[in-house]
């Protein structure tokens, strides 16, 4: 990753530096150190937020670093099954059909499981491919293979996008 890209690790490092700078400012009474520490802390928070952000349009995900991924088909199909199941439940309730309500509830529950399976698949492959991209990029950097290094950086960024998208959807469901 290039220096302009956001990363969680960089945000943690900047946050730690800000804490040290703030402590130094408190010990010495330096208002400029305190101000710089506050600015660095804000920057670290912004970097962390940016590192976790993903734009989503249907099954397509894009990150600020340029990573692109598509959702596991189970995520999309599961979401669709939940929608259809909920509709069947509602219609069954309106027309007084217990069997349609029950069928809808079952389809909704199966859709939730299917979507969760897709999310876990995307999360797992995202983590795995991020590691492969990072290690491959370091190896290519050591050998001086710039083309391979760029390929591995893209693999890392695409995998990070896939992982962050799954994390965001899982968190959204946990918050609901």
Task: Characterize the structure shown.
- With 176 residues, this protein is mostly helical.
- It is built from five helices and three strands.
- The chain has a three-stranded antiparallel sheet with strand order 1-2-3, with helices on one face.
- α1 runs antiparallel to α2.
- The longest helix is centred in the C-terminal third of the chain and has 46 residues, at 98-143.
- The chain is flat.
- It starts with 7 loop residues before the first helix and ends with a helix.
- The mean pLDDT is 86.
State the main characteristics.
single chain; 80% helix; 5 helices; mainly alpha; flat
What's the gist of this structure?
By secondary structure, this protein is mainly alpha-helical.
Class from helix and strand fractions: mainly alpha
Largest sheet entry: 3 strands, antiparallel
- Uncertain stretches: none
Average of the residue pLDDT scores: 86
User: How big a fraction of the residues is strand?
Assistant: 5-15%
- What distance separates the N and C termini? 34 Å
Strand order of the largest sheet: 1-2-3
Shape: flat
């Amino acid at each position: 990753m290039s220096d302009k890209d956001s990363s969680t690790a960089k945000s943690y490092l900047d946050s730690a530096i800000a804490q040290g700078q703030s402590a130094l400012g408190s010990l010495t009474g330096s208002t400029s150190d305190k101000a710089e520490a506050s600015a660095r802390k804000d920057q670290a928070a912004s970097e962390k937020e940016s590192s976790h952000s993903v734009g989503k349009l249907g099954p397509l995900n894009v990150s600020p670093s340029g990573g692109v991924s598509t959702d596991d088909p189970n995520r999309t199909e599961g979401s669709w099954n939940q929608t259809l199941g909920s509709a069947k439940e509602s219609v069954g309730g309106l027309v007084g059909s217990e069997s349609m309500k029950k069928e809808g509830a079952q389809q909704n529950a199966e859709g939730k499981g299917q979507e969760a399976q897709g999310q876990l698949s995307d999360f797992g492959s995202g983590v795995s491919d991020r590691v492969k991209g990072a290690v491959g990029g370091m190896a290519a950097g050591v050998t001086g293979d710039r083309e391979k290094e760029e390929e591995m950086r893209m693999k890392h960024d695409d995998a990070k996008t896939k992982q962050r998208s799954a994390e965001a959807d899982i968190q959204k469901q946990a918050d609901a």
